[in-house]
């Protein structure tokens, strides 16, 4: 069984040294999730999954503890490049995000 510990910053590291990384692309709004030892390996693994139109890799960041829980559940992880997430926050913040999406829904 894999044991995981949480750092004071909310990052989860596994005992075997592999962690989840979110790899962001230049021309794509969603990140690719990979299970890697470090950011360099995460970039290499994500590059293998690259599809036409993604552009180059913008950044690779370790998934925070809340994201890891979602990944293990099989849920879709929504995380912006600036590190914020529409899935977490106060009820007021979530309601504001919903109303903003509703304003543009007719364009989608």
Q: Tell the overall outline.
A: globular
Task: Count every helix, treating DSSP H or I runs of 4 or more residues as helices.
Answer: 3
- Give a count of the beta strands, DSSP E runs of length 2 or more: 5
As a percent range, the share of strand residues is 15-25%
Write the layout of secondary structure elements.
Blueprint: E1 4-6, E2 12-14, E3 19-25, E4 32-36, H1 39-48, E5 57-62, H2 65-73, H3 91-104
Architecture overview:
The protein is 31% helix and 22% strand. The chain has helices at residues 39-48, 65-73, 91-104; strands spanning 4-6, 12-14, 19-25, 32-36, 57-62. The strands form 2 sheets. It has a 3-stranded antiparallel sheet, with helices on one face. Strands 1-2 form a two-stranded antiparallel ribbon. A hairpin with a 5-residue loop joins β1 (4-6) and β2 (12-14). It starts with a strand and ends with a helix. The mean pLDDT is 79.
Give the tags:
single chain, 108 residues, alpha+beta, two-stranded antiparallel sheet, 5 strands, 31% helix
Quick recap:
The chain is of the alpha+beta class and 108 residues long.
């Amino acid at each position: 069984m894999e044991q995981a510990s949480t750092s004071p910053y909310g990052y989860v590291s596994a005992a075997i040294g592999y962690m989840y990384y979110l790899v962001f692309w230049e021309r794509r709004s969603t990140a690719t999730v990979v299970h890697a030892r470090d950011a360099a390996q995460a970039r290499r693994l994500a590059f293998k999954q690259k599809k036409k139109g993604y552009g180059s890799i913008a950044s690779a960041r370790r998934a925070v503890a809340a994201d890891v829980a979602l990944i293990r559940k099989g849920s879709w992880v929504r995380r912006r490049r600036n590190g914020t997430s529409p899935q977490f926050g106060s009820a007021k913040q979530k309601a504001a995000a919903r109303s903003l999406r509703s304003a543009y829904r007719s364009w989608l």
